[in-house]
Design brief:
This protein is an alpha/beta fold and about 300 residues long. About 35% of the residues lie in helices and about 20% in strands. This is BQ2448_3325 protein.
């Protein structure tokens, strides 16, 4: 550590945690260099989800700007580990500036890219724990389960989460995670009105609706839109052709503001024609939104071709 006084980014793997007491060695090294070393701003971990690993994360990251959880395996009781993770978020929520002494807000980016479970209470607390959050990413491998931990709430909805996020700081919101059991978290309703500076929006197809697509096209700044199929979408498709299935149920992305606005126009056309949001054949919203995405791209390609003549 003495040779890494300008260290900003750390990626932890099993080599960083070869014994259960490794976090103590890291802690001592950091303490010795605290006077001269700049704080670590980005922490990415592929360690198994254990209390010792979380202690290591806690001692490394007390002034984090970015936290990435990637490829973790949950070891031991999940709720105990989530409490440790909650403390890491709380530790990085507010901090005094080393240069000015003024209080500043910490974490800006949180990404969970692994197969794990996260309670709705923890997600519901993010706007309070991370008041200046700019980017939130929950991969489709993440399961959101119904649990009220330490009275942090158990009535999470996506619209409620959106209304709690900081409208001045939030730039990217991607939630591909799925609620477990009978838990229903609703849709991204209100995202355009409450998060005007949002430029990236992604989620499962059933988190959207025609009206949401119209709203983000007419208001706000979304210029990148991605939708993932529902996990059980393929089960609702009776096609025997695997290639047809992949074409129908795959993630779709629009990468310009003009394309997003075109999507809103098409959604308005669907409403005027009385076309249901659920697909008539398989009852799948994923099939509908994928068709709309492909229609938007087709129109954009035709416009580009006509301009090039």
């Amino acid at each position: 550590m003495r040779h890494c006084t300008a260290l900003k980014r750390v990626t932890l793997n099993d080599y960083a945690m070869h014994t259960k007491y490794s976090w103590q060695a890291w802690h001592r090294a950091l303490d010795k260099q605290a006077a001269v070393a700049s704080p670590i701003e980005s922490l990415c971990s592929t360690l198994s989800w254990t209390r010792d690993a979380l202690k290591l994360m806690a001692c490394l990251g007390s002034e984090l700007r970015e936290l990435v959880i990637k490829g973790w395996e949950v070891v031991g009781p999940w709720l105990a580990q989530e409490e440790e993770f909650y403390e890491i978020l709380r530790l990085n929520a507010v901090m005094p500036s080393a240069r000015t002494g003024l209080v500043t807000f910490g974490l800006r980016k949180i990404s969970v890219i692994t197969r794990c479970e996260v309670s709705q209470g923890l997600i519901q607390s993010l706007p309070i724990l991370v008041p200046m959050l700019e980017e939130l990413y929950l991969a489709e491998e993440v399961d959101i389960f119904a649990k009220n931990i330490m009275n942090r709430g158990n009535d999470l909805t996506f619209s409620g989460l959106i209304s709690g996020l900081n409208a001045d700081s939030m730039k990217s919101l991607e939630i591909y995670a799925h609620p477990t059991g009978r838990l229903s978290l609703g849709t991204f309703e209100g995202v355009a009105g409450h998060l005007p500076k949002l430029t990236r929006l992604g989620g499962c197809s059933h988190y959207f609706s025609y009206q949401i697509l119209i709203d983000i096209a007419q208001h706000g700044s979304v210029s990148w839109l991605c939708t993932h199929p529902d996990r059980d979408s393929e089960g609702g498709n009776e096609s025997e052709d695997d290639e047809d299935k992949r074409a129908l149920f795959q993630e779709e992305t629009l990468e310009s503001r003009a394309a997003v606005q075109e999507m809103g126009t098409i959604a308005e056309e669907m409403i005027s024609l009385g076309v249901a949001w659920a697909d008539e054949e398989g009852g799948s919203k994923g099939a509908v939104i994928n068709k709309l995405m492909r229609l938007v791209r087709g129109r954009a390609q035709r416009r580009g071709a006509s301009k090039g003549r």
